Amino acid sequence: TKLLEKHLEHLPDLLHSADVELRIEAGETIALLYELAREEDEDYEGKDIDSLCETLKKLATDSNKHRAKKDRRQQRSSFRDVLRAVEEGDVPELTIKFGTESVIIDSWTRKKQYDAFCAVLGSGVYQHLQDNFVVREVFGLGAPIPVGAKPAQKITKWERTHYNAAAFKALTKARSKHRDKRSVMMNGD
Questions:
Q1: Distance between CA 6 and CA 59 in Å, rounded?
Q2: Is residue 126 a contact partner of residue 118, using CB atoms and an 8 Å limit?
Q3: pLDDT of 117-135, one tens digit each?
Q4: Would you state the torsion angle of the CA atoms of residues 133, 137, 142, 147, taken in this order, to the nearest 10 degrees?
Q5: Is residue 82 located within the same domain as residue 11?
């Protein structure tokens, strides 16, 4: 916890940087450190949490016009998650789908790992999630699924259309019967 305290002491200063990416990284790192600290002590609050939460709230609702609209949107989105992490210990849950599989990002540690892989691998991250043993091991996916073991082929458009038509017809008949019963009950026949 002393190591976390040491780093948490300096990170809030970076939240005032002019660079939006540095502010976001600092905020996400603070959330990560709070997550790690709360693994040791569930009630961990750190020093001067009120001031930190106030700064995070300002960043989560920043509307300065001298910043680009995209940067403001990105910053507000990120700092809403960071604020919830610091105040409530909440973690943004994200599901990454690739091929027939998916990875659930359910902690700040996992999010930072995924972000690092995205930065290094770029658009090839999905291919590596499917085939790369090391990347799959990091995310606990097991061995890659062989190409021949992919799920059975999807139903054709013709089959889907006929299935939907039959379902629609059955629904229409059921509604018609229900309407007939209601009219009998209302008229008292």
A1: 23
A2: no
A3: 999 988 888 888 888 889 8
A4: -30
A5: yes
Question: Does residue 158 belong to any structural domain of this protein?
Answer: no
Give the structural domain span for 136.
94-149
Q: Which pLDDT does position 156 carry in this prediction?
A: 83
State the residue for tokens 């089959």. Answer: 159
Q: Do residue 18 and residue 74 come from a single domain? A: yes
Both 49 and 63 in a single domain?
yes
3-state secondary structure (DSSP) of residue 161: helix
Contact 34, 53 (CB under 8 A): no
Last-in-domain residue among 44, 59, 88: 88
Predicted pLDDT at 101: 83
- The two structure tokens encoding residue 142: 């097991």
* 98 contacts 130 by C-beta, under 8 angstroms: yes
Token pair 């091991």 is found at: 137
Cα 56 to chain centroid, rounded: 19
Alpha carbon of residue 154 to chain centroid: 28
Is residue 98 within a helix (H) or strand (E), and if so which, with residue range? strand 94-98
Q: 3-state DSSP call for residue 105?
A: strand
User: How many domains does the chain fold into?
Assistant: 2
Burial 38-54 (b: 16+ CB within 10 A, else e): beeeeebebeeeeebee
Q: Give the count of beta carbons closer than 10 Å to the beta carbon of residue 96.
A: 15
